[in-house]
Amino acid sequence: MQKHRNTVEFCVHGKYALFSDVLTRVGGEKYSYPIPTYEALKGILQSIYFKPTLIWYIDAVRIMKPIKTIRKGIRPIKYDGGNDLSYYTYLEDVCYQVRAHFEWNMNRPELEQDRNENKHHNIAKRMIERGGRRDIFLGARECQGYVEPCVFGEGESVYDNVDMDMAFMYYGIIYPDEAEKEEDKGYMTVCLWQPKMKNGIIEFVRPSEIASEHKRHIKKMEIKKFGRELNNFTGLEEFEGGEVDGMDE
User: From 3.50.50.60, 3.40.190.150, 3.30.70.2660, 3.40.47.10, which CATH number describes the 8-165+199-204 domain?
Assistant: First the structure.
């Protein structure tokens, strides 16, 4: 497994997780996949540190604790009144080691002046040490997660000597501002894949490596614009004069 010079590694854990199987959501009841999806892990990393200048790529996840589930009766909100009851199946007592790296978002040339790899990398590592910039959720808002630094591969996993083929499952979404292939630009694209766990580790393919027959364009979508003239982007200046300033020295 390749380790990039701007790699980040962290451990995320929590009491419950709900990485919903899309097939079970139609009937109003949710059942979790046995492992986190690429999109869920990317969302966790974006909660730790996000800038439109860069794109996070999840390289691998290591499953540390046994995969076990718990079923709960939930009263969902009904906007037309009345009571209802659904059963959600959560993962219980989860812990994952994650390795990821970032690359520049080449679909945003207007943010080229913000491409300072060393500073973004150091700030991201500092945010991991602080537990993230925003709240961390394990697939759903009711599943609070907690982040801390780790060395990927250290410590014992219950699956260290286990290989397992997973079922065909949801991978994630390619948004138009992160699309690498011309065929995906201008669309919101949903992707599916079949992961394989080897010695407790699942290595992810890049979104651009998903086979055409395993993805579908859901709808057309324009790229959201960022810029100082739009008053919605500050770049690394956000941290100047603060506790992370000067970290590239």
Answer: 3.30.70.2660
What letter would DSSP give residue 51?
A: -
Summarised one tens digit per residue, pLDDT across range 225-249 is 776 666 656 665 665 555 554 444 4
User: Over the stretch 2-46, which tens digit does the pLDDT of each residue have?
Assistant: 889 999 999 999 999 999 998 887 777 899 999 999 999 999 999
Do the Cβ atoms of 153 and 179 come closer than 8 Å? no
Q: Tokens in use for 41?
A: 């892990």
Instruction: Return the bridge partners of 104, or none.
Output: 54
Query: Which amino acid type is present at position 243?
Result: E
3-state secondary structure of 9: strand
Task: Give me the phi and psi of 220, to 5 degrees please.
Answer: -75, 145
**Could you tell me the CA-to-CA distances from 185 to 57, 182, 213 in Å, in that order?**
18, 5, 17
Element (H, E) at 71: strand 69-74
The pTM of this model reads: 0.88
Helices (H) and strands (E) in the chain, counts: 3, 12
Nearest to 99, CA basis, from 182, 173, 18, 9: 9
Q: How far apart are CA 98 and CA 153, in angstroms?
A: 9
Residue 63's identity, in one-letter code, is I
Q: Could you tell me if 28 and 74 are in contact, meaning their C-beta atoms sit under 8 angstroms apart?
A: no
In whole angstroms, give the CA distance from residue 36 to residue 26: 20
